[in-house]
Amino acid sequence: MYYLQYSLLALGAILLNFNLTVSMLCIIIFLLITWKNKNLNARKTIICIIVFLVFFIRGAYVQKNNSTKLINMENKDVVLKIYDRVDINGNYLRGVGYINDEKVLINYTLQSEEEKDFFKKKFSGGEIYTNVNIEDIKEKTNFYSFDYKKYNENRGVFKQVKLNQIKNIKSEDSIVDKIKSIRAKMSLKISNEITFDKSGYFEALILGDKNYLQREDINSFKKLGISHLLAISGLHLGLLISIIYYILQKLNFTSNLIENIIIIILPCYMGISGFSPSVSRAGLMIIVYLILRRKNIANIDSLLITFLIMTIINPLYIFDIGFELSFFITFSLLMSTEYIKKSKNKLQSSLKISVISFLASMPILISNFYTVPYISVLSNIILVPIFSIIIFPLVVCSYIVFLLSTTIFNILCKPLLNLVFYIFDEIQSILLRVQPIRIGKQNIYVIIAIYLIILYILICLNKNKYKVSLCGLATIVSFLAVNNTFNSSKDLFEKLEIGKSQVYYLKENGVTILINTSNNLENFYSDFRKKDKVYDIINEYDTLLNYEGKNKIDYLILTSTKKGEIGFAETLVGKGIIKKVVILDIHKEKFNDLINLAKFKNIDVLVLKENNELIKSIYYYNKIIKIKDIEIEVND
Q1: Reduced 3-state DSSP string for 351-384
Q2: For the chain, percent helix, then strand, then coil, each to nearest 5?
Q3: Strand 92-99 vs strand 87-89: parallel, antiparallel, or unpaired?
Q4: For residue 530, what is the DSSP state?
Q5: Is 259 exposed, middle or buried (0-12, 13-18, 19+ CB in 10 A)?
Q6: Residues 6+ apart with CB under 8 A from 299
Q7: Secondary structure string (H, E, C) spanning 461-487
Q8: Residues of the chain with pLDDT under 70
Q9: What DSSP designation does 139 have?
Q10: How far is CA 278 from CA 116, 262, 267, 285, 326, in A?
Q11: pLDDT single digits (tens) 325-375
């Protein structure tokens, strides 16, 4: 219990520099636990005061120094250090580098196919002598968009650098730089020599880099609530350690020697996988447990000590979604250990683990993604065993075979991997018929309330108070329903940038209206500039609907026949996320295909005649659509 109290104090102290409301909540919970347990003597009180002061000072220091020393400028000659691979898409290069030891985002337009081949197949880091433009990371484009600027600031990244001209490239000289580039070289070898659709899983599960997974795979995992399978964590490390333990035991190694070997191996593997928050949490927790095991330390205390170590090293971890999910889900499972152990069989145990994981992830997912993938209760029971028992060991073993012989890998492993992933994808496609619930953006007080109710539900589950737990869930649903009703009543009028066009979004008296749609970006190049991955703007509309907590937009108004302005209309109608389509009388003959598609999908098509209004804020006259104070000229 002491470590829980210390962790709450540490979290409250750090947040005192960032968010007073949540900080006070952590301190209040600490005081309530202390009052209930009455376990603080003079010595423990002094320790608590020291913990609070140390973490507050550490948080204040990081907040003050989490800023950039670079200034915006153009045509500046710099030495850019890169320790990892860069991402290539068409003729566009992006990645992360360092200027004067400050991390920056980099982007560059490749000039030739030879240059593209070099960076894609040979470059694994080094020093680039280049001329650059240094600028701030851009603010988010639309009100519902992911805040990429804030996300990077929490990682200590404030500037993006556009490379104008590359003058020279040097490989790593120092031993430290060569060690840092080991991961990049491993990634490069996988990319160049493991060539099949699912090769991204090798980099995700071995190196902790999800950038090379197919976008469809990432979206499927996200919608099914099993994204944790793609992040190297306790599940993966546990399997890896079990394999190591089994092999070394067969070689007659003593338990103490095996544990010492594991303590040495884990930091190396954590480094290879990029020291992501999830793998750092899992690896450090195992190391702490192995070191302190002889003192009979509980698993949950190992987790909390790991939390204290990681947050004192980098207090900004608390803003990382992976860190939040990893710690809160693991904490919830460990506090429910006895409840899970009382299961009658493995199926009941899996169900309990899945329900607890779902509940623990709920407030974090609602806060960040505005959805609840309730199918995760079932998908975790079905897909986690398949992934952990079959796919992960198969990927690791296949990688070892690949290192020994590419020929054997291609003959034996690749067909087997294709078959396993085919079956896994088919199971996913069945489960994906159940889509996540769109919750909508919630204010901080609702999120806090959900956290507290979830903790209460977990406590009740551990005491087998199922009726009270269901009442808690009903309370959360009520909270969300009331808040969504309140949010829907707020009027909103925004100009959005989607694709390369402007789209207008109006919400008035709970009615949502989209004016035009933009079009998907064309991938029209046939040479080295042709993109391998094309962004689909349906993601923009999905994010908008998630943010608003709606499954459909009430009206789609089309004011033009130009493909660049309304080209995505048929897709939106085809996917059934539009309730009614509004076209202008002068365009009726030009939208026959859209009208037929709408009829097939049972979507009403309204024809707006000149000198008429759709609602009070939208009026059509003299080939002009007036929306509040904005006038849009109608194109023939």
Answers
A1: HHHHHHHHHHHHHHHHHHHCEECCCHHHHHHHHH
A2: 55, 15, 25
A3: antiparallel
A4: -
A5: buried
A6: 289, 334, 337
A7: HHCCCHHHHHHHHHHHHHHHHHHHHHH
A8: 173-177, 179-180, 294, 523, 636
A9: P
A10: 33, 18, 13, 11, 6
A11: 888 998 999 999 888 988 888 889 999 999 999 999 999 999 999 999 999
Burial class (CB in 10 A: 0-12, 13-18, 19+), 164: middle
Q: What single letter denotes the amino acid at residue 297?
A: I
Kind of pairing, strands 612-615 and 604-608? unpaired
Neighbours of 566 (CB within 10 A): 27
363: which 2 tokens?
């407030």
Distance CA 545, CA 438 (A): 7
Structure tokens at 310: 């990681």
CB 214 within 8 A of CB 197: yes
Q: Which of 417, 386, 454, 431 is nearest to 229 (CA)?
A: 386
* Nearest CA-CA partner of 573 in 615, 538, 608, 522: 538
DSSP state, residue 263: H
Q: What is the distance, to the nearest Å, from the Cα of residue 543 to the centroid of all Cα atoms in its chain? A: 13
With the C-alpha atoms ordered 446, 452, 456, 459, is the resulting torsion angle positive or negative?
positive
The whole-model pTM stands at 0.88
DSSP letter for 296, please.
T
Do 501 and 515 touch, CB atoms closer than 8 A? no
User: What SS3 state is found at 624?
Assistant: strand
Output the CA–CA distances (angstroms, integers) from residue 528 to 108, 226, 531, in the order listed. 14, 35, 8
Q: Which residues pair with 626 in a beta bridge?
A: 619, 631
The kind and range of the H/E element at 538 are: helix 538-548
Q: Give the number of other Cβ atoms within 10 Å of residue 144's Cβ.
A: 19
Q: How far apart are CA 341 and CA 343, in angstroms?
A: 5
Q: Which of 587, 610, 417, 528 is nearest to 109 (CA)?
A: 528
* 100-144 tens-digit pLDDT: 989 999 999 999 999 999 998 888 888 999 999 999 999 998 999
Q: Which two tokens stand for residue 417?
A: 């991997």
Per the structure block, which two tokens stand in for 392?
């992960």
Encoded amino acid at 584, one letter = L
H or E element at residue 515: strand 511-515
Distance from first CA to last CA of the chain, Å, rounded?
A: 71
The amino acid occupying position 112 is S
489-522 in b/e burial notation, b at 16+ Cβ within 10 A?
A: eeeeeeebebbebebbbbbbeebbbbbbbbbbee
355 token code pair: 């329900």
**Under a CB-based contact definition with an 8 Å cutoff, are residues 119 and 88 in contact?**
yes
The pLDDT of residue 71 is 93
List residues bridging with 582 in a β-sheet: 557, 606
- The pLDDT score that the predictor gives to residue 394 is 92
- CB atoms inside a 10 Å sphere around CB 635: 14
**Element spanning 239, H or E:** helix 234-250
Residue whose C-alpha is closest to residue 446's, from 414, 487, 411:
487
Contact 109, 115 (CB under 8 A): no
For the record, the structure tokens of 212 come out as 């090379």
195: left (phi over 0), alpha (psi -120 to 50) or beta: beta
Q: Give the pairing of strands 604-608 and 501-508.
A: unpaired
